[in-house]
Write a structure and sequence with these properties.
Elements lengths: L1 H17 L18 H4 L6 E6 L4 E6 L2 E7 L8 E2 L9 E2 L1 E12 L2 E6 L4 H9 L5 H13 L14 E3 L6 H5 L9 E2 L2 H7 L8 E4 L1
């Protein structure tokens, strides 16, 4: 019984700090734009990130070989799946690119992803969760290599980040505490950061 109560208490401790997983995570003005779709495809020589939501691991990959493995990651409080709307606290499955990096985030470091991508936009358009104009905004930004709009009903500010100044015990307790992001502890995010570059492939599965 204590295990369950402890999780509730730990969630409450961090809830006031987290609020939105990545609220107001501004893009660094000096960050170059995203690479285009043609150059974004991963080759056997390129590094990319694999988030394994079943094993709670983030892996730095080169081709199909892991270079570094980070265990005990945290996801959105609603788990991982097909994210449908802003505020559903779900970590989106799919293939993304690193859109920007904030090295001075309240979460220690924030590696922003280009969510919503065209896959999510197309599905939302078919299901009438967004209109044609919103779809075209997302598609145009993605094709041109820019960060897609973050103000649509699909949500935004999805990324990989640390705990920052929050209570590390909440993260180490194995609780999925974010609002849809992938979280590492502060040591892990520092170790990952030197490998990350804008345009890098990130697969969440």
């Amino acid at each position: 019984m204590w295990g369950f109560d402890r999780r509730i208490v730990l969630l409450g401790i961090l809830a006031w700090l987290v609020g939105g997983c990545a609220t107001n995570e501004a893009q660094n003005p000096s960050t170059p734009p995203l690479v285009t779709n043609r150059t974004a495809a991963a080759s056997n020589r390129e590094s990319w990130l694999l988030v394994d939501t079943k094993r709670d691991q983030l892996m730095l990959m080169r081709g199909e070989q892991p270079i570094k493995v980070f265990d005990q990651i945290a996801l959105g409080s609603s788990g991982a799946g097909l994210k449908s709307r802003r505020g559903d606290n779900k970590t989106p499955l799919g293939v993304f690119r690193v859109g920007w990096v904030n090295d001075h985030s309240k979460f220690k470091k924030f590696i922003g992803l280009d969510y919503p991508n065209t896959d999510y936009a197309e599905r939302a358009l078919r299901e009438r969760r967004i209109d044609q104009w919103t779809y075209e905004r997302i598609r145009s930004a993605w094709i041109s290599g820019n960060r897609p709009p973050q103000d649509t009903p699909l949500g935004g500010q999805i990324g990989i980040h640390g705990v920052g100044g929050g209570d590390p015990n909440v993260h180490s307790a194995g609780v999925n505490w974010t609002s849809g992001c992938v979280a590492l502890n502060n040591w892990q995010i520092d170790a990952l950061r030197p490998w990350v570059k804008v345009g890098m492939r990130v697969e969440i599965r």
